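Help!! Second protein's tokens look totally different from the first
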Amino acid sequence: MKLAIIPITITDAREFVSQHHRHHDAPVSALFAVAVADSEVVRGVALVGRPIARALQDGYTAEVTRCCTDGTRNACSMLYGAAWRAARALGYRRLVTYTLASEEGTSLRASGFREVGKTTARSWNCKSRPRVDRAPLQEKLRWEQTV
């Protein structure tokens, strides 16, 4: 089975995430999406958007907001690599993403990302804007690629 990077619409990538992601819903929006497929069967997608953290929104940083596969070997590494190449081609100088601290990060290391820090989990719920937390509230690791 030979994998290849293919184009995908943001809508179709969001649908794939909705069907396959273990612990997150699809992001509301994205700047672009990439997919990996064998023949014509999509095996994974990555959605890249503006950074969630306001401190990282400098105009030159993008964030992989979701990377989701059906478990196909090497698909995540290919997606992270393709996302970085595409972001760089669009003029971005840094690409960040997050994993749960319980995840190993093997695909990120394989595609050239490096671990740069930890974040403490917190709820988006507040008195002035009540929300239901649908994602795990665990410590996360931040990873990045830079020019």
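Here's the second one for comparison:
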Amino acid sequence: IRTMRLQCYQDRFVLLAGKNEGSTEVFGIFNGDVDRATLELATALRDRIALWGPALPGGRWQPRLEVQVQPRGDMRFHQLRTLMNDSGIEIVGRESQ
């Protein structure tokens, strides 16, 4: 299992840089178009996963997206989960403190 971290706000998704994995990327939600932002996010996730290289023989990578849901970001998180359903990426949400 490899974990990527995301912050979910009402108006944007922020994919945080991982160890040796690119830079922090922001996907804005303009005019309520969460579909476009999610597609851009999914493309960025795919690109990061591609950089992982091959898994050990007989194994496979299981990507996990750990989402920190920010205040007022609940609706966007639920939309993200719906749009990313069956993507092969486990999505785990946590409320921001």
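Reply: Different proteins will give different token patterns, so don't panic. Helices lie at 34-51, 74-83.
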